[in-house]
Amino acid sequence: MTRVKICGTTTVADGMLAAEAGADAIGLIFAPVSRRQVDVQTARQISLAVGPAVGRVGVFLDQPLDEVLRLAAAARVSAVQIHGRVSSLYLETLACYHPVLRVLTPAELAGAGAPPIGHTLMLDAPTPGQGVPLDWEALRPGFLPGSWLAGGLGPENVKQAIQVLQPAGVDAVSRLEMAPGHKDPARVRAFIQAVKMASWSATNESYPQ
Ligand SMILES: O=C(O)c1ccccc1NCC(=O)[C@H](O)[C@H](O)COP(=O)(O)O
Question: What's a Pfam family in this record (predicted)?
Answer without folding.
Answer: PRAI
